[in-house]
Amino acid sequence: MKKILFSLLFVLISSYAVCQNPYDLWLQYDKIEDKTLLDSYKKQVSNVYLNLNSPTGDVIKEEIEKSFKGLLHIEPKFDNKTPNLIISTLNKLDPSLKKKLSKTSNINDEGYVIQHISEKGESKIILSAKTEKGLLYGVFNFIKQIQLHKDLSKLTIVDSPKIQKRVLNHWDNLDRSVERGYAGFSIWDWYLLPELIKQEYIDYARANASIGINGTVLTNVNSNALVLSPRYIQKLKALANVFRPYGIQVYLTARFSAPIETGDLETADPLNAEVKQWWKDKAEEIYTEIPDFGGFLVKANSEGQPGPNNYGRSHVDGANMLAEAVAPYDGIIMWRAFVYSEEKPEDRAKQAYSEFKPFDGKFKDNVLVQVKNGAIDFQPREPFHPLFGAMPDTPLMMEFQITQEYLGGMSHLVFLPKLFEEVLEEDTYTQGKGSTVGKIIDGQLSNKKLTGMAGVANIGTAKNWTGHQFGQANWYGFGRLAWNPETSAETIAKDWLKMTFSNNAEFVDPMSKLLLDSREAVVNYMTPLGLHHIMAAGHHQGPGPWVKDMPRPDWTSVYYHKADENGIGFDRTSSGSNALDQYASEIQEKYSDPATTPDKYLLWFHHLPWNYKMKSGKTLWYEITAHYQKGVEQVEDMQKTWQKMQKYVDPQVFKETNMLLDIQLKEAKQWRNACLLYFQQFSKMDLPDLIPEITKDLDYYKSLETPYAPGIRPSWN
Length: 717
Ligand code: GCV
Known about the structure:
Elements: H1 2-17, H2 35-44, E1 48-50, H3 55-72, E2 85-89, H4 95-100, E3 112-119, E4 122-129, H5 132-147, E5 156-159, E6 165-169, H6 199-210, E7 215-217, H7 230-243, E8 249-253, H8 258-261, H9 273-289, E9 295-298, H10 315-326, E10 332-336, H11 348-356, E11 367-372, E12 396-401, H12 417-425, H13 437-441, E13 452-456, H14 471-483, H15 489-500, H16 505-526, H17 558-561, H18 585-591, H19 602-605, H20 620-643, H21 651-683, H22 698-703
Parallel strand pairs: 1-2, 2-4, 6-7, 6-13, 7-8, 8-9, 9-10, 10-11, 11-12, 12-13
Antiparallel strand pairs: 3-4, 3-5
The protein binds 4-O-methyl-alpha-D-glucopyranuronic acid.
Residues 171, 179-180, 221-222, 299, 303, 338, 377 line the site of 4-O-methyl-alpha-D-glucopyranuronic acid (GCV).
């Protein structure tokens, strides 16, 4: 009986302990259960010195209070006489304490030092920075150390962001639909702004600040000129006021034809004097209301958006005209290089390079050219964009996609930092061995004045912000990598898991493996061995290797996989489109021969016969089938791992993730079956035994429809 009561009690206690609130993201401040650790923390940070009289100072104080109350169950004392946690900017720090800090000269304006010191036999923790913004970042990192159960008596952290502009891009429309959004509607309630300031805006800013994000573009790159009207500038101003204490600047997307659409002018020609003045006046109008407005992000002459080419002008003309308008206020222009023309027969993968490379060194100092990680479009895997390294005299900003347009939308668990890490670690060889993409965008290789990283947000009105609980990890991971592109995906996975769920190794170890493997799983069951862009048309969810009748050939699947009786893959060597020529000679040499091309990029660069002999000794056809099967099995493994995690996870999150994994498995099988049946028409080879019997035929998979799939603007009829 005693035993039963005991185990009942245990079940009660353990289920009580697991009550994360998904809305709180990685900022879960649940009480530390380990009593010894808790007592030692309480002793070390019982009394806080904080002497900041500013909105950012208030945010810092609130965060200390909230976290100490939650994690340590104490009300921190803010008694400036005998503090053991001292939070102060460097210029106000007692010189005797300042002397004890290591390497403060290494930090930049957003950096900070956290150090445990001994003074007169007493132990103290000093958290200092050049600016209050630096202090805010330091405070979040300090709290993280407690969330991660770190030994505070050994702390010495000297850290600064390696990238200056760490920006979320919201593809949010003014009607609150979100292009490629899978987490509900836009969180920006434009209709009720500026009067209604929702708590979400504050919590959004806090979450972003906690991972070092310092800017947000609020509107879709497929933009609407209305947001530049005086009425909307007031709404924007209200949001800017909320975000400012958290160190976050607001940006807008600029519709290039806005001077016409507002009814003011008849042209938007960037070399026209009136147009130039229009943008200067607009900038002045915005900066009068929002002095720290960040600037504009522009998608021009791409997928139907207006731009300078409409007037026979170049991207440089367009970007520089806008750059001049915002320059007096330290504003910047993020000009996207995502261009490909329906009129050009050139391989789509080559077009951005062909168009932008000749412009190297021609942009004004406050322009960043924003380049997607790969040359096509955020596929599960792409080789790095050849522009990285090819424009040494132009600051290039990385654009990653956090929202999972091509990686399972709302229902697939895919840990994207693994993808981001792979891109950042790729060697471009453009300045010799070791010229990684990461080093190009953080300015290490060129001493760039401006550096930036953008992430297309996966945030919406979903109660947990991202729809899929594990989408939070991708938002978190983007922030960590924007702060320091050399952070490993493994560190990010472990930190996120610990901060969100539990420090218990029995949870963290298998779950970090699950996260780290999840990206390869999705590549395997969607686009293995360098295949790409074979998804369904329009909403981009599910397989569609048969897609061929579209308004543009480069929107079809057949354009990319080129499967026929002779084989499969896109020949991008000199015998084909020669896109390979846009890379450094080291890469060209290696990738021009299929035998030395890494398998993961094989069909990106080569069209090969179905019976081509792979490095494994098996045929290409066999390897394609085996990769699809492996992807499915990897999802099954994810399910098995997740089943064992119940006791560490909030019951609702556990249940929902279970159901989502079921959907992911079902869809992984759909991808496998549909793609194999489709390609088999050309290979005319049998499916190996490792593929379980496929009971449906290809027509069945082709007939599957997904009406109202999210991510594209709904039509209300
Ligand atoms: C915002 C792809 C997406 C579009 C997106 C575009 C872009 O084509 O499917 O939804 O538009 O990229 O990045 O501009």
